[in-house]
Design a protein that fits this description.
Blueprint: H1 40-50, E1 56-58, E2 77-82, E3 90-95, E4 103-105, H2 124-129, H3 137-140, E5 144-151, H4 153-159, E6 171-172, H5 174-183, E7 196-199, H6 203-209, H7 212-221, E8 231-232, H8 236-245, E9 249-252, H9 269-277, E10 281-283, H10 288-297, E11 301-306, E12 316-317, E13 321-324
Parallel strand pairs: 5-7, 6-8, 7-9, 9-10
Antiparallel strand pairs: 1-13, 2-3, 4-10, 4-12, 5-11, 11-13
Pfam families: Cyclase
GO molecular function, one term: arylformamidase activity
Family: Belongs to the Cyclase 1 superfamily.
Length: 325
């Protein structure tokens, strides 16, 4: 990556395009966006610093996780094929929405809503005509790998005595991200170019531990209404930090990274990150074992390896993500 990195205040780069866009920074046919920050040097340094104990764990929720209450997207349907009597063997066939469980949102997923323009100013008609533009298979070529910084907001919030309903539109302002890092004996200045941010909101913890009455209520509600969820409060301050720090990707354990529904559309993270910068957004990552491991080891950085699927034309992908310590 050789292009000079402009300051946040210099955005948009394409003055004819929507607010905040960075189109053209890395060429006319860029397919990787902020993943360009994951240079060999950056990833090599992350590996040298973080492979210490050999501890490793999955960051992937069950593909059958969102079963009750069920979300609107199609869940995994697995068909087992018994090949007897020809052979004592099995095949299987999978059918699912790529965002039904842990996922990376790619750059075909979300556009600037008023302009109907995706990353690099591309239009939906281009996706229908070709598997090439903005497809997540470009990301699969090298994956998403590097130093990850775990921000366990949920543990911080519980330590403050906050009452949290992760199934509501509970907003997390940027200053609480800074306070969580301080709680972990870190600071915002600790983060550097090419980092992958991983935030625990407590969403999957509460989903898996909710009582039967709430589970039944939400399952009925979600049949007619898109779920609310806890998440980051969109703000200029947050976006400026992500851009100026050169964060490569960001993910969390909630159904949406940003609070949903999004109330402040001026700073709508799905628009700015996916359509504006080409920054992958990860959602429904399973972070419970990660939280325990980080607390036990007393460290909140690790090496993340994520291998999105090589599916030309795809919008999103399961992350196939592992954390290494």
């Amino acid at each position: 990556m050789t292009a000079q990195h402009p300051d946040f205040d210099q955005l948009p780069l394409d003055k004819t395009g929507p607010r905040g866009n960075a189109w053209g920074l890395l060429g006319k046919d860029d397919q990787l966006g902020t993943l360009n920050y994951l240079t060999d040097e950056v990833v090599g340094q992350a590996a040298r610093e973080n492979f210490k104990t050999g501890t490793r764990l999955s960051l992937n929720w069950s593909m059958k996780g969102a079963s009750y209450p069920k979300f609107a997207r199609k869940n995994l349907e697995l068909r087992l094929i018994n090949k007897a009597p020809l052979k004592h063997a099995h095949d299987d066939e999978w059918s699912f929405n790529s965002q039904c469980s842990s996922q990376w949102d790619g750059f075909r997923h979300y556009a600037y809503q008023n302009e109907a323009l995706y990353y690099m100013g591309r239009k939906a008609e281009e996706f229908a005509a070709s598997d090439h533009p903005n497809s997540i298979h470009h990301v699969s070529a090298k994956g998403i790998a590097g130093r990850a910084v775990f921000i366990d907001w949920y543990s911080w919030a519980l330590a403050q005595g906050l009452e949290i309903d992760a199934m509501s539109s509970y907003e997390i302002p940027f200053d609480q991200i800074a306070k969580t890092l301080e709680f972990q004996n870190m600071s915002l200045d600790f983060l550097r170019a090419g980092d992958i941010i991983v935030i625990r909101f407590g969403y999957l913890y509460q989903y898996e531990n909710m009582d039967a009455a709430k589970r039944e209520y939400l399952d009925k509600l979600y049949q007619t209404q898109k779920p609310d969820n806890i998440g980051l409060k969109p703000s200029e301050e947050l976006l400026k930090f992500l851009w100026d720090t050169k964060i490569a990707a960001i993910c969390g354990d909630a159904r949406s990274l940003e609070v949903w529904p999004c109330k402040d559309l001026e700073w709508h993270l799905h628009e700015w990150l996916l359509a504006g910068w080409g920054m992958p957004i990860g959602e429904l990552f399973y972070l419970e074992e990660l939280a325990k491991t980080c607390k036990t080891l007393g460290r909140y950085t690790f090496f993340m390896s994520s291998s999105p699927m090589n599916v030309p034309g795809a919008v999103a992908s399961p992350p196939n993500a592992l954390a290494f310590f």
